[in-house]
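Encode chain A's predicted structure.
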Amino acid sequence: MIARVTALTCQWLMGICTVNSVDLPDGTSCESGVFVERCKYLEESKCVGICVNTCKLPTQTFFKDYMGVPLLMEPNFTDYSCQFKFGVLPPQPEDDITLKEPCLEVCPIASRRRQVAQTQSTDVGQCPKA
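Encoded structure for chain A:
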């Protein structure tokens, strides 16, 4: 039910969405997934940090804490798609590979940080985490 409502009501923000089947922790599968073909939010920001810190983590927390439904979001930073898996708990932060993603080459914030680093001969490192 939540997957269908999400797919119907959130296309204005995320883009074209379809409900799909996901594997649940108990080994069964269920039509509790939403596949976002090309997330407008990620595509416009072009930033892993913005995606993770202002969308993925807060949305997962909201659904778990306020709706009582576990949610795992799996953004794909190559094609800007995103898989929502309702009923699946997200991994612990230390095990979440999304949190280890480097900045995108096209990220405007990372590009600016690289420019500053070149003029000051310093190491940019990775974007700061919120």
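The longest strand covers residues 29-36.
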